[in-house]
Amino acid sequence: MKKLLCYLIPVLMISAISCKKKSDPVEPVPYTSYKINTVSQTLNYASNFSKDFCSTSTFCCRFTATSTSDTVNMETMKIGIPGDPIVGYVYYTGLYRFSCFYVNPAGVRYDLTYNNSSLFSVVFTQWDGQGGWGKGYFSGWLRSANNDSILIQNGYFQNKIWTMGTN
After folding, report:
1. CB 119 within 8 Å of CB 100
2. What whole-number distance in Å separates Cα of residue 56 and Cα of residue 118?
3. What whole-number distance in Å separates Cα of residue 81 and Cα of residue 122?
4. Does the pTM exceed 0.70?
5. How far apart are the C-alpha atoms of 142 and 118, rounded to whole Å?
């Protein structure tokens, strides 16, 4: 009987350990982070990358400071890409249908500027397609209607891709 217990106890322990529920993988969360004139910012709410609700770009997304749908005077960063994003391709100021803007907490909007000394760029490091994730980096200069400029550096984004039933 003792021999049987010596064999049975390790087998039961091994089977109990192997039956332990494995934890689900942690899903990333949508957000963007960046520095504006050396001050770090993070926006934790986002609309999915979508090709169905962009006015001029093929794919776009909007990151905001809060989850409210009222975006008036709310810190916002919008990225709009022409065509299906290509990993490693540099999207930059002046490309047809490339758009980006930033709205600061005071409600001042900063847009792309179209001169050679004020470039803004976006590079995707991941694009999974429908239901996956888009991730990448951005940096450059944006300008307000009053000709005030801001420098955005070390920008990073990650967001879910949703194309409303299209591929």
Report:
1. no
2. 21
3. 9
4. yes
5. 8
